[in-house]
User: Which sequence fits this backbone?
């Protein structure tokens, strides 16, 4: 990427020199060249008007050298320029292999709206975080980047928000490869996309278990249903389709939402849905202080990433809430049941951001909460023995031979593979985003912590005594004037 950027530097110079030659100019100082380029273009020089500029010339060369399309070559040149001039420290972590190319390009794109001074600061902060942490999954990495941007350059986060709002779109196009099939795509602000996603999932789930369709098919049917103005999916199980009086899912009392519940659905302030519509649910983690407007710390939208405080406040205003209080949850009397309480499960999930298996990006609030040491073997139901695992990794851990997992005394989750490698499951977690979720470090009864506490207390006491002696000496040598 540095080479691509350097070629671009050269080709820009060549381009300007050629324009100067065309105008019979000898001086090729940078300031003069820019002026000449403008003059050449105004004077209808076909080279200046239609010819490739320095960037285009470089794109062609880089594309040929790497056998990549023009768009990819352009990306390398631009990223190379950012690497050389704006994010040299993060570039160094790429060079050292601490991050890979997709992660570096993600940083380049996500910091694109930051001002140069903020870029300087973010470059150092993010590079330091990359250097000091174990490798992390892509979702955790993006949350880390966005958290730093939201914290240190809130103006950039607001600009990003406006851009994201203005770029919303949905497209429907014929599929190039499959006749008779079309593709639906598009971009939405994350919380709106989450609302659509949650609505489709809720509609797809609110049919009887023996509905013959797959979950994916039911989600598709739900979207088409919405287009037709329906807010619930017709069940296609044998009972519902053979008996016209069964009346679809409404006949099952378990799937009818209580009327009092429907006005407040998690994350959706919309109070107009009919009592029979399945309730869509998505999850937002936000500091209480931000909710109260005392600060603008970023929030986390499960499955999507960092969310700005304004949007989080708006969404949570109409949502059902769980207040997480790590100090209360850790109470020992709560640990002797197998199933964690909702508050404990929420704390475990919020503290991890996603499935805690290394590299996994599956959303935390769709995972199982797993005991490291099984409950049946005496494993307690508390945060130090619980972690979120998606269904796939839960099955791997439970049934595959040779996987081990444990929390260390600091509360970090580790996984050991059948080959004997040890992986940190959670190099960047919810506890890095939300300081109030931070575990209190070593448990109070930890031997090392007790030792350090004793040493500190002793040192503090001796300093105090020395201070007192110095004060006494000074008083003795300087008696008050009376
Ligand atoms: Zn049915
Ligand atoms: Zn997983």
Assistant:
């Amino acid at each position: 990427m540095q080479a691509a950027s350097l070629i671009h530097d050269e080709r820009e110079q060549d381009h300007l020199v050629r324009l100067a030659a065309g105008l019979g100019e000898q001086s090729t100082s940078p300031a003069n060249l820019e002026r000449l380029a403008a003059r050449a273009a105004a004077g209808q020089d076909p080279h200046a008007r239609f010819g490739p500029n320095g960037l285009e010339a470089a794109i062609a060369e880089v594309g040929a050298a790497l056998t990549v399309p023009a768009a990819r070559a352009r990306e390398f040149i631009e990223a190379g320029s950012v690497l050389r001039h704006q994010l040299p420290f993060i570039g160094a972590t790429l060079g050292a292999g601490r991050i890979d190319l997709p992660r570096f390009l993600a940083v380049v794109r996500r910091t694109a709206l930051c001002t140069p001074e903020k870029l300087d600061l973010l470059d150092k902060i993010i590079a330091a975080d990359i250097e000091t942490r174990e490798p992390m999954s892509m979702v955790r990495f993006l949350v880390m980047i966005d958290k730093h941007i939201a914290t240190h350059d809130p103006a950039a986060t607001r600009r990003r928000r406006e851009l994201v709002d203005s770029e919303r779109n949905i497209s429907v196009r014929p599929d190039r490869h499959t006749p008779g099939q079309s593709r639906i795509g598009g971009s939405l602000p994350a919380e709106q996309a989450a609302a659509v996603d949650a609505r489709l999932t809720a509609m797809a789930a609110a049919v009887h278990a023996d509905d013959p369709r797959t979950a994916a098919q039911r989600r598709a049917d739900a979207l088409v249903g919405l287009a037709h103005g329906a807010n619930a999916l017709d069940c296609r199980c044998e009972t519902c389709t053979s008996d016209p009086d069964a009346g679809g899912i409404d006949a099952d009392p378990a799937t009818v939402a209580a009327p009092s519940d429907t006005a407040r659905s998690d994350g959706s302030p919309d109070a107009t849905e009919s009592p029979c519509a399945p309730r869509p649910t998505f999850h937002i983690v936000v500091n209480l202080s931000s909710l109260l407007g005392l600060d603008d710390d970023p929030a986390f939208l499960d499955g999507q990433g960092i969310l700005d405080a304004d949007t989080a406040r708006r969404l949570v205003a109409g949502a059902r809430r769980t207040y997480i209080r790590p100090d209360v949850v850790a109470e020992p009397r709560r640990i002797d049941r197998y199933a964690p309480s909702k508050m404990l499960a929420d704390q475990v999930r919020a503290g991890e951001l996603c499935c805690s298996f290394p590299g996994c990006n599956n959303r935390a609030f769709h995972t199982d909460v797993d005991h490291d040491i099984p409950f049946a073997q005496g494993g307690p139901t508390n945060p130090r023995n619980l972690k979120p695992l998606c269904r796939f990794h839960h099955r791997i851990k439970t049934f595959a031979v040779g996987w081990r997992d444990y929390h260390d005394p600091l509360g970090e989750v580790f996984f050991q593979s059948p080959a004997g490698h040890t992986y940190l499951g959670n190099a960047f977690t919810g506890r890095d985003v939300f300081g109030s979720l931070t575990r209190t470090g070593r448990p109070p009864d930890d031997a090392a912590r007790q030792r350090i506490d004793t040493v500190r207390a002793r040192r503090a006491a001796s300093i105090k005594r020395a201070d007192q002696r110095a004060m006494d000496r000074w008083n003795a040598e300087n008696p008050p004037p009376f």
